[in-house]
Amino acid sequence: MAEAKWYVVHTYSGYENKVKANIEKTIENNPHLAEEILEVRVPLQDVVEVKNGAKKTVQKKMFPGYVLLNMEMNDDTWYVVRNTRGVTGFVGPGSKPVPLTEAEMKPLGIKSDDVSIDFAEGDSIAVVAGVWKDTVGVVQKIDYGKQTATINVELFGRETPVEISFAEVRRMN
Fold it and tell me: What is the percent of the chain with per-residue pLDDT over 70, rounded to a whole number?
């Protein structure tokens, strides 16, 4: 049995959710595929939109036209996915799908190593690297999947939220 890896499938724009549903329906109808195609995802991100002066958080697709699959690559799974309605092909050279690397998956929040941090929401932290180096802020939100902390910093006299990598911060004593 081969190891399951994450692959990217290109779809017609706007068909991402239909492709996801079609693949899941195919898995439901063919129980042997459930052990080979483990997960189908359409990565979403929260985006703040301002309409008529009102802020509203909505979810948008991170990669329009693409679907992520955690599966074992073999002739059967390749054929099933490739012949799913709305799929134009796998991402990779020619017809050879290339799995995502650990580094490519980390910002998507799909797989993350267990990280222990010594700060929590509400703690003051100092930024020790990157663009915001030597800045101090209060942690507003922690995202373990992306390994980032959102802090408020003062910018032009206003509190502004900034997303900082765990590697760039340390707790204030």
Answer: 92
37 has a pLDDT exceeding 80: yes
- Scanning 66-143, the segments in alpha helix (DSSP H) are 75-82, 102-105
DSSP 4-60: PEEEEEEE-TT-HHHHHHHHHHHHHH-GGGGGTEEEEE--EEEEEEEETTEEEEEEE
* Domains of the chain by start residue, with CATH: 5-108 (3.30.70.940), 124-171 (2.30.30.30)
168 half-sphere exposure, CB direction, 13 A CA radius:
19
Give CA–CA dist 90/8, Å, rounded: 6
Buried b (16+ CB within 10 A) or exposed e, 113-122: eeeebebeee
Q: Is the pLDDT of residue 115 over 70?
A: no
- With contact defined as beta carbons under 8 Å apart, do 116 and 171 qualify? no
112 pLDDT tier (thresholds 50, 70, 90) = very low
